[in-house]
Amino acid sequence: MKFNKYIAVFLTAAILTSFAGCSNLEDMPEIIPDNTKAPTQQTAGEENTTVNEKTEGEEQTNSPQTETEQTEADEKAPAAEEQGTVPDSYREDGENGIKIIGRNGHYMGLMGCWGTFENCERYADAVNKAAAALPDVKVYNMVIPTSSEFYVPDDITGFTSSQKEKIDHIADKLSGVTDVDAYSALKAHTEEPIYTRTDHHWQPLGAYYAAEQFAKAAGVGDKFAPLSQYTEVVKEGYMGSLYNYSKSENLKSDPEPFTLYISPNDKALKTTYYDTAFDNGYESDLFVTRDGSNYYCSFLGSDNRIAKIETDCDNGKTLVVMKESYGNGLIPFLTQCYQTIYVCDARYFDLNAIQFCKDVNADDLLFAVCTFTPAGPNVKEVERVVG
User: Rounded distance, CA 123 to CA 142, Å?
Assistant: First the structure.
């Protein structure tokens, strides 16, 4: 089934607007109060899969060390997926414009990313407006490329547009804002499992590399913990959103591992969840569920709420993260770097982001979104929260 560029733009917008995070899944887990385990549920396309958790110390296969310079001498290599038999030449047109390719012996789903430079300029203007209105707050921008930027084979043309061009265009339009180069950080690790094969999100490993880049830019890199200090939880049998939209039986037959990294200071964290008007708070866990059934929803659990995370970091610094679902993966890797972190989703936030930063005495404000948000229709949500 062939789709032209304009149909692909429309479908991508519809899919990512309705399925951009955990909060719109029919089987989204509810956040369970303290000392209560979240119920085991299945995510879209996960029928009849068996989930096995492996933590550090249990038998698992690790990939060889990459040639990329490690942050710390004791940095461990990320877990490698067991080799499959799918040829790299495999190509399939799934429903809703999703492409299925063969890569490293497995099926991989890809969603195109289009959008306009005009929308990118609107996004840059909104971020600039926040910076101008917050002279005592350091404002950072991180636009995160999606997997199609790195993994679309050369023989597939007209399926997606250059995300780097849009990311660079936004960076050129920023004023009084520090741009965080997540693109280069991810590109250096594309042979590692930094994106999911079956979902439109990244893997937590990709978020780790991007969070490291932000920590350096924000001057808190000395507190950023190496990957070896995290508790690794490997969950087998993940089947995400790209099967739900592509309906590819081949993709469904080839689930993947999903690896969580539990923060070194996890037991010291106090996480309070509020509604989108910053009312009705209650305490719960940053990792809402670790039982293997909800994967990308494991941290924060949902997008349509505000999270306040108090840590054991004693630097007195407060960070506000204005994001969509891609930004969720960053948060566990920043709990060593800030004493307080507020996490807000621009699509559901009912307050003014500038006033909110003033009210919570923010030191830093990070806009962390995938390329689709500034380039596509969700740019209006960033404009709305800035006011």
Answer: 12
- Range of 43's domain? 5-82+112-386
Cα gap 123→383, rounded to integer Å: 7
The Cα 196–Cα 200 span in angstroms is 7
Q: Write out the two tokens for 262.
A: 């539990």
Long-range CB contacts (< 8 A, 24+ apart) of 69-72?
70/226, 71/212, 71/224, 71/226, 71/227, 72/226, 72/228
In this prediction, residue 301 has a pLDDT band, given cuts at 50, 70 and 90, of low
CA dihedral 25, 321, 323, 209 (to 10 degrees): -90
Q: Which residue has the tokens 């800030």?
A: 338
- The band of 36, judged by pLDDT with boundaries at 50, 70 and 90, is very low
CA–CA dist 382, 168 (Å, integer):
19
On whether residue 352 sits in a domain, the answer given is yes
Closest CA to 372 of 59, 120, 83, 127: 120
pTM of the model: 0.83
Give pLDDT tens digits for 195-254. 999 999 999 999 999 999 999 999 999 999 999 999 998 888 999 899 999 999 999 999
Specify the number of domains making up the chain: 1
